[in-house]
Amino acid sequence: KQEVTQIPAALSVPEGENLVLNCSFTDSAIYNLQWFRQDPGKGLTSLLLIQSSQREQTSGRLNASLDKSSGRSTLYIAASQPGDSATYLCAVRAGGSNYKLTFGKGTLLTVNP
Amino acid sequence: NAGVMQNPRHLVRRRGQEARLRCSPMKGHSHVYWYRQLPEEGLKFMVYLQKENIIDESGMPKERFSAEFPKEGPSILRIQQVVRGDSAAYFCASSLETGSYEQYFGPGTRLTVT
């Protein structure tokens, strides 16, 4: 059974700092991995989708890497801003159901001005 | 191009009542997925539907929960005789094709059972 773990559960940083969020998964036979952002009381916004054949994806100040063999992904946020404050979720598709997303519990990020 | 729409956004029900949650997928999407987010828990898959068909309901409780996606109209997640443990955020997602195609999420319905 696929399990996704995100560390740390919460992170507070001053504005301008570069930071890394971690995601690990137990079944390395994944189809792809996706990072989402969730604002309080809101839905999920997809940030980056990495296919199993890819090593990383970049969008603006965000960079996500994938190491399938070790079951790890990182989300790097450069020059953090207060507007980046949100919960960041990692989700994988694995196993026989390539449509079923398995989520971690998320990392709550607070960027202080 | 409107995104995934869910209504109501907030729903309060007393124990024993029925809850009906609606989801309109993105235009052109015929694949719908429901996920539930319990307090302090990650989102968990409930059910996957295509038009008029339930493809995978392995994550949905066997009793009191049902889902449909009719030929016309939104997808409906129905919870009968709600209990306090059903209080959660219910998210709907849709995709253009099945498989590992990207799923687009709606804003969710927050159900509170009193």
Describe the 3D structure:
The complex is a heterodimer of chains A (113) and B (114). Chain A is mainly beta and 113 residues long. Chain A has no helices and 11 strands. By secondary structure, chain B is mainly beta. Chain B has no helices and 11 strands. In chain B, strands 2, 4, 5, 6, 9, 10 and 11 form a 7-stranded mixed beta sheet that branches. Chain B has a 4-stranded antiparallel beta sheet with strand order 1-3-8-7, with no helix packed on it. In chain B, strand 7 and strand 8 form a beta hairpin. Chain B starts with a strand and ends with a strand. Classes of the chains: A mainly beta (113), B mainly beta (114). At the A-B interface, strand 4, strand 5, strand 9 and strand 10 of A face strand 4, strand 5 and strand 10 of B.
Overall form of chain B:
globular
Structural class of chain A: mainly beta
Query: What's the helical proportion of residues of chain B?
Result: under 10%
Q: What oligomeric state is this?
A: heterodimer
Number of strands of chain A: 11
Low-confidence stretches of chain B: none
Please estimate the helix content of chain A: under 10%
Report the uncertain regions of chain A: none
Strand segment count of chain B: 11
What's the order of the H and E elements of chain A? EEEEEEEEEEE
Instruction: Specify the number of helices of chain B.
Output: 0
Mean pLDDT of chain B: 93
Could you give a short account of the major beta sheet of chain A? 6 strands, mixed
**Biggest interface and which pair forms it?**
A-B, 26 and 28 residues
Radius of gyration of chain A: 13 Å
Order of helices and strands of chain B: EEEEEEEEEEE
Distance between the termini of chain B: 37 Å
Q: Mean pLDDT of chain A, as a whole number?
A: 93
| Straight-line N-to-C gap of chain A | 41 Å
